Amino acid sequence: MGFLEVYLDLLSQPCRAVHIFLSHNKIPHKLRIVALRKGEHKTPEFTKLNPMQQVPVMVDKGFVLTERSCRPYPVLSLMRTAIRNPVERDEEGGYVGML
Ligand SMILES: N[C@@H](CCC(=O)N[C@@H](CS)C(=O)NCC(=O)O)C(=O)O
């Protein structure tokens, strides 16, 4: 299963919202820290990912979502999973995998 990648700076409120949502719902993800104070969002690599040079950014199997669209996206993924495959949860009801 390819991990969801999220590019965040945890000093940023929108980023914390994404991170809290993913963690609370036990959605496996790879956290990639982008330190705004060090200008890491201005690098050519990050600019390729998000030309707006802002966090949060989420990458799911090559599909890139930027800014506020990151926030409803995990909700939609969870709903999609629950509808199509409700057994993809652990014993405590935590999310196990992306479709
Ligand atoms: N519109 C975005 C906000 C994105 C945003 O403003 N990100 C800030 C951090 S909170 C950022 O990356 N700032 C860097 C910059 O603009 O240079 C959302 O609602 O998620």
TrEMBL record:
Gene3D superfamilies on file: Glutaredoxin (3.40.30.10)
PANTHER family reported for this sequence: GLUTATHIONE TRANSFERASE (PTHR43917:SF10), PTHR43917
A GO term for molecular function: glutathione transferase activity
Residue ranges annotated for the GST N-terminal domain, each copy included: 2-94
Signal peptide: none
Protein name per its UniProtKB record: Glutathione S-transferase theta 2
Positions in coiled-coil regions: none
Organism field: Scleropages formosus (Asian bonytongue)
Annotated Pfam families: GST_N_2
SUPFAM superfamilies on file: Thioredoxin-like
GO biological process entries: glutathione metabolic process
Classification via CDD domains: GST_N_Theta
One GO CC term on file: cytoplasm
Gene: gstt2
InterPro entries recorded: Glutathione_S-Trfase_N (IPR004045), GST_N_Theta (IPR040075), GST_Theta (IPR051369), Thioredoxin-like_sf (IPR036249)
Positions of transmembrane segments: none
